[in-house]
Amino acid sequence: MKIRSLSFLTVVFVLLAFTANAQLTGSAHDFHSLTWNTSGEICLPCHTPHNGSTTLSDAPLWNHAATSSTFTLYSSGTMNATMGQPTGVSKLCLSCHDGSVALDSYGGTSGTTYVTGGTNFGTDLTNDHPISISYTAALATADGELHDPTTTLSGLSTTGNIDDDMLFGTAHDKLECSSCHDVHNSGNHGGLLVKSNAASALCITCHNK
Ligand code: HEC
Ligand code: HEC
Ligand code: HEC
Ligand code: HEC
Question: What are the distances in angstroms from CA 142 to CA 132, 137, 209?
Fold first, then answer.
């Protein structure tokens, strides 16, 4: 009985995906035919319709084991934002991309297959764009070369500003991995990006350079 209702809901999940998010299919995040993913499903390594994990915040019906790594953070003399350990959505990404938690550690099982090569960031984030920072109007003023996220269109929707469409957390001020990346590849821009970075269009959405 339990197994039946679970697979029914999974079918609903997959159908939703085909109508709303068709580009996930065939993307780097389509794991359905990979040998480590014995479920044969697309969403299940990351989400579950029931009994989702509440260990991490901003984790919608989360089904993947969480990283417990401590990271070495980006730092620079010209940064105005305050850096801290990764939080929110970024921790979901790092739960595969820091190479410490197996890809097939989902749904309560412990797996053995890990990301390798360039997609394994490890715990050294010193050479990566800062994440989990608060990007507010005040930060833009302090920096002088950032657009005000509360009044600048993101370009991702007709009327949404950067804070509406690209920032996370309850105050919509957190810059995370998902500020630049679309985990579901909805727009099909390559590199799982939220928009094309041709002529650095992604970068100059926020940076006034
Ligand atoms: C590789 C992991 C991964 C896979 C696979 C994945 N998701 Fe997600 N999903 C996430 C993450 C991370 C978030 C958190 C917010 C974000 O980054 O957009 C999310 C957010 C969501 C949300 C809430 C926010 C939104 O975008 O509406 C829904 C609904 C969702 N996913 C549905 C799905 C469905 C349906 C599938 C399968 C077709 C799927 N996801 C596959 C990682 C994944
Ligand atoms: C369930 C594990 C898992 C989660 C969670 C996950 N990823 Fe991935 N991701 C992968 C795997 C596996 C690949 C393919 C790696 C490879 O081929 O080397 C990948 C590839 C990528 C790529 C490369 C895309 C390309 O076209 O080459 C990007 C970018 C990426 N992930 C970003 C993210 C971001 C951002 C998040 C969180 C919002 C996230 N991932 C969450 C497992 C995951
Ligand atoms: C400021 C924007 C930005 C942020 C924040 C960001 N990325 Fe990226 N990321 C990019 C761009 C741009 C690329 C290159 C995409 C391309 O052209 O294929 C990239 C590439 C990648 C790749 C592919 C690397 C490779 O060598 O194949 C992965 C994996 C990835 N990002 C994961 C993440 C994760 C995980 C986070 C959060 C910890 C993150 N990114 C945060 C912009 C960003
Ligand atoms: C969603 C908004 C956003 C996007 C998109 C974005 N950035 Fe950033 N970036 C920021 C914020 C906010 C900071 C923190 C600035 C500060 O605190 O001084 C930052 C920091 C940086 C820094 C470090 C600055 C320093 O003083 O050390 C560099 C370099 C940078 N970004 C380059 C890029 C590049 C290149 C891209 C495109 C691949 C990009 N950014 C995309 C918002 C963004």
Answer: 18, 9, 15
26 falls within a domain: no
| HSE (side-chain half, CA atoms, 13 Å) at 139 | 21
In a domain, 106, yes or no: no
Helix (H), strand (E) at residue 142: helix 137-143
Specify the DSSP class assigned to residue 175.
Answer: E
Ligand 3 pocket check: which of 92, 116, 177 to mutate, most ligand atoms within 8 Å of Cβ? 177
Say if pTM beats, i.e. exceeds, 0.90: yes
Q: Nearest Cα to 149, choosing from 97, 89, 81, 76?
A: 81
Count the neighbouring beta carbons within 10 Å of the beta carbon of residue 118.
6
Any domain includes 13: no
Best substitution site from 76, 89, 180, 206 to test ligand 4's pocket, by max atoms within 8 Å of Cβ? 206
> pLDDT tens digits for 11-62?
656 555 544 446 999 999 999 999 999 999 999 999 999 999 998 989 999 9
In a domain? residue 2: no
| Cα–Cα distance for residue pair 27/131, rounded to 1 Å | 24
Number of structural domains the chain divides into = 1
